[in-house]
Amino acid sequence: MTNTISPEALAKLAPHYIRSIAAYQPGKPISDVARELGMRETDIVKLASNENPLGASPKAIAAIHTALGDLAMYPDGGGFALKAAISKKYAVSPEQVILGNGSNDILELAARTFMRAGDSAVYSQHAFAVYPLATQAVGAHGIEVAAKNFGNDLDAMLAAIRADTKMIFLANPNNPTGTFIPGPALCAFVKKVPQNVLVVLDEAYGEYLKDSDAYDSAPWLAEFPNIVVSHTLSKAYGLAGLRMGFGLAHPQLIDLMNRVRQPFNVNHLAMVAAVAALGDDAFIAESRRVNDAGLSLLKIEFAKRDLETIPAFGNFITFKVESTKRVFEALLRQGVIVRPIAGYGLPDYLRVTIGTEAQNRRFLAALDIARAQEK
Predict the structure, then answer these.
(1) How far is CA 374 from CA 329, 330, 366, in A?
(2) Average pLDDT over every residue of 6-12
(3) Among candidates 215, 280, 202, which has minimal Cα distance to 247?
């Protein structure tokens, strides 16, 4: 018997709020550029996805090698060793920790656990794309608050809270714009949020903050039972390929999120590597040093070229350039991948990850050529 159901009819098997989701668009992989442009992968530099240009923590790599013989076994579903390492580093109890397949997993777990159709979530314009995606995927309504100086407008976000609001998503530093809210201001904001509204603080880039800007939100858990703090090891720790994240929250919230979490959502090698990486302070220090130097260089060079930038506090910088699409494509033809962010409401901007000094200078040289072609 021939199946005659149409693609349109198949699509209608999903709820309308699923059908209307625009899929997340990741940074362009090196392999795609090499294949499309006939280039060697080794001739391409990717500065599009905020990966650590130094690679992974050496301690994490060594730990993976020792764990390769365990691949036939399921991972520890409770993540005992990793939770212990996180607990020690952040001075929280293991019951306050949940593990995720990247911090995206934590954000989605929060949405799936605490929101349903008819609820709403507040997030900023120019905020991480996963916030509206996670909200829409459960049938909730997203309330996008206009940005203030390309960042989170805390007063406006408070004013946007409605009776049906269950959650506020807030990244600090913000992605993709790079803006930052000082710790005291952020803590004062959390204090004003009604306790029946969860505040999800996304601190994916916190390790890159200068000492003068750094703050510790973990102690806030004792005062505010309505916050979830998400972290990732994809950025400063260099473990993006392993998809390793975790969240900190009140034990009751963690218990509920664990009921929704898939069994074995984090693989064994990721957990082994994470335990080692969390103890590799030297690698984080070097990553910050390289990032600080690169960020300073790019700020100076953008200013020399009269290119407007958004204040940057992570491991990337967002800059304004004419003929954005053509400049992006011209950079690609030279083997330099950056990130267009028109999908974030910033069609005149590109985002570039901070690389090594050689990578940063190659990007600048390619940018000069790309801009010259537009004149």
Answers:
(1) 12, 10, 13
(2) 76
(3) 202
For the stretch 284-325, pLDDT in tens is 999 999 999 999 999 999 999 999 999 999 999 999 999 999
> Angle at Cα 113 formed by Cα 110 and Cα 115, nearest 5°?
90
Instruction: Report yes or no: 363 and 45 within 8 Å, Cβ to Cβ.
Output: yes
Beta-bridged to residue 143, according to DSSP, are 122
Q: How far apart are CA 183 and CA 244, in angstroms?
A: 25
Instruction: Label residue 373 by pLDDT band (50, 70, 90).
Output: confident
Q: Tell me, what's the pLDDT at 325? A: 94
According to DSSP, the residues that pair with 120 across neighbouring strands are 141, 165
Question: What structural domains and CATH numbers belong to the chain?
Answer: 8-55+282-373 (3.90.1150.10), 59-279 (3.40.640.10)
Q: What's the CA gap between 346 and 341, in Å, rounded? A: 6
141 CB contacts (<8 Å, ≥6 apart)? 118, 119, 120, 121, 135, 164
Closest Cα partner for 274 from 24, 97, 130?
A: 97
Q: Nearest Cα to 81, choosing from 257, 231, 268, 280?
A: 268
Q: Reply yes or no on whether the pLDDT at 173 is more than 70.
A: yes
Band of pLDDT at residue 150, cut at 50, 70 and 90: very high
How many Å apart are CA 310 and CA 179, to the nearest integer? 7
**Under 8 Å between Cβ of 205 and 315:** yes
Mean pLDDT of the chain: 94
Contact status, residue 161 vs residue 122, Cβ threshold 8 Å: yes
Question: How many Cβ atoms are within 10 Å of 10's Cβ, its own excluded?
Answer: 9
Please give the single-letter amino acid code of residue 309.
T
Please give the model's pTM, rounded to 2 decimal places: 0.92
How many whole angstroms separate alpha carbon 201 and alpha carbon 173?
10
How much is the pLDDT for 7?
A: 75
**37, two tokens:** 């442009």
**Helix (H) or strand (E) run with residue 81 in it:** helix 80-90
The residues near 14 (Cβ < 8 Å, ≥ 6 apart) are none
Short-list 56, 123, 88, 21, CA closest to 270: 56
Q: Name which of 217, 192, 204 is nearest 243 in CA terms.
A: 204
Q: What's the CA gap between 214 and 139, in Å, rounded?
A: 36
